Amino acid sequence: MGKQTWKPGNMIYPLPAVMVSCAREGEKPNIITVAWTGTICTNPPMVYISVKPERYSYDMIRETGEFVINLTTQKLAKATDYCGVRSGRDVDKFQELHLTPEAAEQVKVPMIGECPVNIECRVKEIKKLGSHHMFIADVLAVHVDEAYMNENGKFELNKTGLLAYSHGEYLGLGEHLGTFGYSVKKKKRKRR
Fold first, then answer.
1. How many domains in the chain?
2. 61: which strand partners?
3. Which ranges carry the Flavin reductase like domain (predicted)?
């Protein structure tokens, strides 16, 4: 079998499908679904989201400099899709989807209570790159659902049923294949 050559485009999949909450003072908060998101660095903790300037949430984030990345789960797949195809200009997504707005600690943007992880962010820089503008942000706080803490105090993120986006489709994460560094980890010798 050979390979076809396609025109330049983005084919880095899967990606996290996240719901980003944002708000302007005195207005209803909004939720936008974003797949163009990720980690920039660990120290200091920084992330990015890329948003089209014509999206309703774009000006909210640009003007306030704040947003919350809310990780999504398989149970939230329909809400995740809805928040990506319906505009906050026309509908109150928190109310329509019966999602719980919870107060954040560092920003004036509500977190989504049903999400297992909420990441409070403050915009550091906006890169105008083309169809999307990249909001580079500092992570101010991370909130995790205590329901996924094990008896040793470890947060078991991979038991939350995380949602991924790949080439136009939403997917649940598959089977566990290994842990970071497992390919070079020395096997423990059995004692005799």
1. 1
2. none
3. 11-157
DSSP code per residue over 66-126:
EEEEEE-BGGGHHHHHHHHHS-TTT--HHHHTT--EE--SSSSS-EETTSSEEEEEEEEEE
Residue 89 in this model has a pLDDT that exceeds 90: yes
How many other CB atoms sit within 10 Å of the CB of residue 191?
A: 4
Per-residue burial over 131-149, b if 16 or more Cβ lie within 10 Å, else e, is ebbbbbbbbbeebbbeeee
Distance (Å, whole) CA 25 – CA 45: 26
Rounded to two decimals, the pTM is 0.93
- Report if residue 45 sits inside a domain: yes
Q: Are 162 and 71 in contact (CB under 8 A)?
A: yes
**Percent share of the chain, pLDDT over 90:** 86
Q: Is the Cα torsion angle 45, 50, 56, 61 positive or negative in sign?
A: positive
CATH number at residue 58: 2.30.110.10
d(CA 136, CA 61): 11
